[in-house]
Amino acid sequence: MSQPIPAPEDVAKAPADADVTSSGLASKVITPGTGTVTPTATATVTVHYTGWTSSDGTMFDSSVSRGQPTSFPLTRVIAGWTEGLQLMVEGETRRFWIPEDLAYGPEVPGSGRPGGQLVFDVELLSFEKGPEPIQVPAGATPTSSGVAVVVNKAGDGESPSHDHTVRFHFTFRDPSGASIQSSRQSGPETAPMGKLPPFFAEVLSMLSSGGTADAYIPGKMLGASHDLLKCELELLEIKEPIAAPPTPEDVAGVPSDAHTTSSGLAYKVLTSGSGGAKPSAASTVTVHYSGWETNGVMFDSSVVRGETTSFGLNQVIAGWTEGLQLMSKGDAFRFWIPEGLAYGPKQEGSGRPGGLLVFDVELVDFS
User: Fold this and answer.
1) Residue 131: pLDDT over 80
2) What is 141-239's CATH number, 3.30.70.270, 1.20.120.530, 3.40.50.12650, 3.10.50.40?
């Protein structure tokens, strides 16, 4: 990078004459523009800019220093840029004070990216109008979670209840209509209705097998910078509820007849298979499993979903990587996995199990 550009005198804090939006974004016009139209959230803009950290005035990026303006869609940048550039006209230079929740989050040493409040001087050179932003169609049905739904095809038969397991496709689209995540590439999702995010369950409960719907979701519900996202859903199959496996009697702690490895992983054999070869740490395994916390609460089960699951042993918690290598095809083991080999200690509100975990695992196949 060429010579750094000095930070503005007000880099540490937005001045009193700055304009502040409801999101907390502060800005001030440095040079008025000559244009009369502002970009929309789907526009592609061409800008010159320089960015500094508010904490110490360090310049971390500058197209001005590089001598080359840059272009990008406003759907592909931090929320502070998406909102702020829509305030500008061509030819305008504006200074933005972007709070960390509209930028890259708090400062994280070693992350390689700036954190905390950031300050940018941005000159809007030009922009190209993008597609019309997604809008909620008239007649859409609002749900209690805050999404709006248009049912395109109801499907055949009954709708799923809280106890059913469903198989479905989804595609999320940004305000420009571009796909940002889709099961059409990765394969259908299968999950109990009771384990789905509320808006997924609400929409799917409006459908029967073969039904399709579009859900319009406020971006803040998903932690996205966009005002509105569209999710296309197709309900492929409704599976009757499968009774959950009973909670093991020894779920509260490792029993005296369990084997314990040097890492602290404990296990015992529930059912012996045919013996023979065992997976390696690089194997891909296919299993049926159920998992409990030590209070007896089941947090996940492929048995309840009615489908085996496959994964690489180098992509899971250490207790699974180690434990599955002890098994042969057809074996069923019970594992007591200490928190250091699982997801760590219990953290309220984290949405994942913590502490010592207990799994019943059947090794169906491996390669």
Assistant:
1) no
2) 3.10.50.40
